[in-house]
Design a protein that fits this description.
452 residues; mainly alpha; 2 domains; 18 helices; 2 strands; 71% helix
């Protein structure tokens, strides 16, 4: 049955994706703990010295430098946002956000998970300078959320994994728009226009799958520098460049099958050896045609996601956590409106918003719950969405300049994320179907004749 095959393929893809996110969440957690312990240890001075160490470029009397933390947040995190952009585009064009029926439930759930936490924070901070932090409790950390969900293994319905993934990607899209629209102080249009002009040859390079790494890097750095100089946060450049990458195949699968059959038939009629193609150029041409055709069958965007995920998982996000999660405990005022807005926004606002907007969407018959998913599971998933580590910390550095406020906000994010993760795990442990070995009755072993 085609539907069964499609479902099986989707399940394999999600299993692979989830396992990569599990690894990322473990490494991210380790780096965050190391940063937090280091920042509160007798060697804390070394940690803060490292974080604020300047690095940059000097030429003559001119120079441009930033702290290592800023290079990571404004430079290296572009890779993270580039992958986020690829995921958003793929989901919008081909995935679970590509049709109204598929997208309505996770998008509406994400909307609730954005508006309610932001509203809670706004209510606590209305009329104060700290109100600008309203975007902090909006975000969901997909690595941690999926990592916790994966702990339940096959007990999790594929529909619930799809729901959480699509919700988190819609959530990321909202966060990117908020960063671009509300956390940009002033726009300098000249460098922004230069970045736009450079995106034209970059689009051509992506379409042609150009192999000249030097040319590609020059264009990418040029776009990044233009967006950075414009006043818009540089990581938005990652999303903009990702939207240029094609995510659809460039050759019809049947055409490739016919071409491959013809090419293999040609090679089969010839005496092909390991060395024959060096002397026989017709063999080399056939093999090269076959190679190029198979490359066109893999969407360029999907290939880039595949290659960049390990870099993001093993380098970018761990460095971000190491350089941003270190805050001195004891300097915070936990009764402050910032702390209350963030903790209550993530811990309560996320599940309430996701649950309420999901229920409204189903009641209005705009969508229905995925197969095998119930309301208890939606609530548990909403709790997991309150783990807002990466993007929440990122927005904190954009929202505040005061170090005391930043420290207060970051520790509140950690506390809220831990609470959300624990409660989400407990709820899902109760509402997910039991594993097969847990439901089978235990039987006493039958005695053998040799036992008597």
């Amino acid at each position: 049955m085609p539907d069964a095959k499609k479902l099986a393929r989707q399940e394999r893809e999600f299993e692979s994706f989830v396992h990569s996110e599990v690894l990322g969440s473990i490494i991210l957690l380790v780096c965050a703990v190391v940063a937090l312990v280091w920042a509160n240890s007798p060697w804390s001075e070394g940690y803060f010295h490292l974080v604020h160490t300047d690095a940059g470029l000097w030429w003559g009397a001119d120079h441009h430098s930033m702290s290592l933390q800023h290079w990571i947040n404004d430079g290296l995190m572009v890779i993270f946002f580039f992958v986020v952009g690829l995921e958003i585009k793929r989901e919008l064009l081909l995935g679970h956000l590509s049709s109204f029926r598929q997208a309505s439930l996770p998008v509406m759930a994400a909307l609730g998970g954005v508006l309610v936490p932001a509203g809670i924070y706004f209510a606590f901070n209305f009329g104060t300078e700290t109100v600008q932090g309203w975007g902090i409790p909006m975000a969901t950390d997909i690595a941690f959320a999926l990592g916790i969900l994966a702990m339940f293994g096959k007990r999790v319905p594929i529909g619930l994994k799809v729901f959480l993934t699509a919700l988190a990607i819609a959530d990321d899209l909202a966060a990117v728009l908020v960063i671009a629209l509300f956390y940009t102080q002033q726009i300098n249009f000249v460098p922004l226009i230069i970045a736009g002009v450079l995106m034209v040859p970059l689009l051509v390079a992506f379409r042609m799958r150009l192999r000249r790494v030097d040319v590609m890097m020059l264009l990418i750095i040029g776009v990044w520098a233009g967006v950075f100089a414009s006043g818009i946060h540089a990581t938005v450049a990652g999303v903009l460049m990702a939207f240029l990458v094609p995510v659809k195949v460039r050759i019809e699968p049947q055409k490739l099958i016919d071409l491959a059959s013809e090419s293999l038939e040609k090679l089969g009629r010839d005496d092909v050896t390991e060395d024959s193609m060096i002397e026989k150029h017709d063999q080399l041409e056939v093999i090269e045609d076959l190679h190029q055709s198979t490359r066109h069958l893999v969407p360029f965007g999907l290939a880039l996601e595949h290659y960049l995920h390990p870099l993001q998982t093993l380098l970018v996000l761990p460095l971000f956590a190491l350089f941003n999660a270190g805050v001195s405990i004891g300097e915070q005022s936990f009764g402050s409106t910032v702390s209350l807005g963030i903790v209550l926004g993530l811990f309560l606002g996320k599940p309430i918003g996701i649950m309420a907007f999901s229920w409204l969407t189903v009641m209005l018959r705009l969508a229905k719950l995925p197969e095998g998913v119930n309301w208890g599971q939606i609530f548990g998933t909403g709790c997991l969405a309150g783990v807002g580590f990466t993007m929440s910390i990122f927005i904190t550095d954009l929202a505040f300049d005061d170090e005391a406020l930043i420290s207060d906000a970051k520790l509140s994010i950690v506390i809220a994320s831990v609470l959300a993760g624990i409660v989400g795990y407990v709820v899902l442990r109760r509402v997910l179907p039991k594993a097969a070995d847990e439901t089978q009755p235990k039987t006493e072993p039958t005695a053998s004749p040799d036992d008597h």
